[in-house]
C-alpha cells in the first residue's frame, strides 16, 4: 500500500529533493500535501508537477493567501494558511509520514503538530532536536510514532546503530566537508562575504545552512543532534573533515573497529531511507562505484581547526551544558547569520556574537514548548541588542 506523504518546506532544497525521489517511485508514495512559507507561485508549480492539490502557505495569516499578489491562483477549497493551516492540512490528509524540511527554528512547532497526531516524522529540521528534543521525543513515545533523521550524517549513524546495536557503539564520528573556506587562512576569513559563503564545494543546500556549513555551525548543530538522538555524550561524538563527502558518518564499536556509510553526496539517499524505513528500497539514484573507474577515488580525513572555526567548539560547550544553552546557541547563530547576510558583521562576527550570548546564564531547564520559545526569544533579543 502506498504511503501518504506531506512535505513541509516543499519549495526548499530538502522539499524539492523529496518530491523528485518520490516521483520516481509512484507505486510507493502518494504526495498528499505541500507546505511552503509565503511564496505561492513555486508552490503552485510543484503542485501541478506532482499532482498534489492540498497546499498550505504557513507564513501567510488569515485570508491573505487568497487575496495576496502571489496567491491568486490557489483555489480556496484547497488552500490552507498560517501555522493553523498546517494542522488542518494534516487532519484532512491523514498522512503516514511527514517530511519536515523547513529551515531554522520555524520548523519546531510543525514537528510538534506532526507528532501530536501520532504521525511518523522524517526530520531534516535540526532545530527541532537542538531546541527541544527531550520534549519531542516524549511526544513521539506518547503517541507511538517515530522520528527518523534525514540529515545525511544522522541518517548514516541511525542505520549503522540499528544494525550493530547502540549498546555496542562507543563513538560516533560525523564527517564534515569543511565548507568553501576549508583551506582559507584566518586572515582571509576576516574579509569573506555572504556571497563567498554560498559557494559550497559538494552540497546543494539552502542559503542559511550553506553559511552554517562555512562556519562549521552546521556541524556544531549536528554534534548537538547526535548527542540527543543517540544518547551520546559530547565526548563520544567526534568530527572529521572529509572534503569528498562520500563517507557520511562512522561509528566505532567497543572492539575498536570503525564502520562507515558511504554513498554519493545526494540528499535523496537519506530522504528515501527515512521514507522507506525499515525497508531498503531499490531506486534509480547514481551508485558510488568503487570497483570500476578510470581514475583513483580519493578519500581523506583531517581534524577540524577549532581556532579558525570556533562555532564548532562553542557547540560542544553548549551540548555539555544543561538548561537552554543549545537553544541560545541556535538562536544567536540565526541572528548572526542574518546580520552577516546583510553585511552588518563579518564572518567572525557570527562566532563573536554567539559566544557573547552564550556567556549569559541559560541554566533554566525548559519544561514545555512555551519555555523553549521563551528562551529562544530571549536569546534572539539579547543578540539583537548586542548588534545595535
Account of the protein in words:
With 388 residues, this protein is α/β, with parallel strands linked by helices. The chain is 45% helix and 14% strand. The protein contains 16 helices and eleven strands. Strands 4-3-2-1-5-6-7 form a seven-stranded parallel β-sheet, with helices on both faces. A four-stranded mixed β-sheet has the order 9-8-10-11, covered by helices on one side. Helix 13 packs parallel to helix 15, helix 14 runs antiparallel to helix 15 and helix 14 packs across helix 16. The longest helix has 19 residues. The chain is globular. The termini are far apart.
Distance between the termini: 56 Å
Q: How many alpha or pi helices?
A: 16
Using the alpha-carbon principal axes, give the shape: globular
| Radius of gyration of CA atoms, rounded to a whole number | 20 Å
Residue-averaged pLDDT = 93
Instruction: List how many beta strands DSSP finds.
Output: 11
Order of helices and strands: EHEHEHEHEHEHEHEHHHHEEEHHHHH
Low-confidence stretches: 64-73
Q: Strand count, sense and closure of the main sheet?
A: 7 strands, parallel
> What structural class is derived from the secondary structure elements?
alpha/beta
Proportion of beta-strand residues: 5-15%
Trace the largest sheet across and list its strands: 4-3-2-1-5-6-7
Q: Report helical residue fraction.
A: 40-55%
Task: For the structure shown, list the relevant keywords.
45% helix, four-stranded mixed beta sheet, alpha/beta, 388 residues
Amino acid at each position: 500500500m502506498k504511503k501518504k506523504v506531506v512535505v513541509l518546506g516543499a519549495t526548499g532544497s530538502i522539499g524539492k529533493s523529496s518530491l523528485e525521489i518520490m516521483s520516481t517511485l509512484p507505486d510507493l508514495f502518494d504526495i498528499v500535501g505541500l507546505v511552503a512559507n509565503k511564496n505561492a507561485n513555486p508552490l503552485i508549480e510543484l503542485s501541478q508537477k506532482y499532482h498534489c492539490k492540498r497546499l498550505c502557505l504557513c507564513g501567510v495569516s488569515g485570508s491573505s493567501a487568497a487575496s495576496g499578489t502571489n496567491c491568486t491562483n490557489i483555489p480556496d477549497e484547497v488552500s490552507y494558511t498560517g501555522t493553523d493551516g498546517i494542522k488542518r492540512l494534516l487532519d484532512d490528509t491523514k498522512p503516514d509520514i511527514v517530511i519536515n524540511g523547513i529551515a531554522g527554528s520555524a520548523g519546531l512547532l510543525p514537528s510538534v503538530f506532526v507528532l501530536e497526531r501520532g504521525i511518523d516524522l522524517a526530520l531534516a529540521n535540526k532545530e527541532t532536536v537542538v531546541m527541544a528534543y527531550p520534549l519531542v521525543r516524549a511526544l513521539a513515545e506518547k503517541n507511538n510514532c517515530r522520528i527518523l533523521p534525514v540529515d545525511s550524517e544522522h541518517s548514516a549513524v541511525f542505520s549503522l546503530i540499528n544494525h550493530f546495536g547502540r549498546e555496542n557503539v562507543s563513538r560516533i564520528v560525523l564527517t564534515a566537508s569543511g565548507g568553501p573556506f576549508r583551506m582559507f587562512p584566518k586572515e582571509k576569513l576576516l574579509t569573506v562575504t555572504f556571497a563567498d559563503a554560498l559557494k559550497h564545494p559538494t552540497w546543494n543546500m539552502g542559503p542559511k545552512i550553506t553559511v552554517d556549513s562555512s562556519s562549521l555551525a552546521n556541524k556544531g548543530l549536528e554534534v548537538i543532534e547526535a548527542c540527543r538522538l543517540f544518547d551520546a555524550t559530547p565526548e563520544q561524538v567526534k568530527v572529521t573533515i572529509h572534503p569528498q563527502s562520500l563517507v557520511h558518518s562512522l561509528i566505532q564499536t567497543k572492539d575498536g573497529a570503525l564502520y562507515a556509510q558511504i554513498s554519493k553526496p545526494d540528499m535523496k539517499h537519506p530522504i528515501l531511507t527515512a521514507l522507506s524505513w525499515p525497508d531498503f528500497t531499490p531506486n534509480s539514484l547514481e551508485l558510488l562505484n568503487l570497483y570500476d573507474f578510470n581514475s583513483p577515488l580519493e578519500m581523506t580525513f583531517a581534524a577540524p581547526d577549532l581556532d579558525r572555526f570556533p562555532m564548532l567548539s562553542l557547540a560542544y560547550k553548549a551540548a555539555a551544558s544543561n538548561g537552554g544553552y543549545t537553544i541560545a546557541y541556535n538562536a544567536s547563530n540565526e541572528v548572526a547569520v542574518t546580520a552577516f547576510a546583510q553585511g552588518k558583521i563579518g564572518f567572525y562576527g557570527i562566532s563573536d556574537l554567539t559566544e557573547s550570548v552564550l556567556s549569559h546564564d541559560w541554566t533554566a531547564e525548559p519544561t514545555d514548548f512555551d519555555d523553549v520559545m521563551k528562551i529562544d526569544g530571549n536569546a534572539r533579543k539579547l543578540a539583537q541588542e548586542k548588534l545595535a
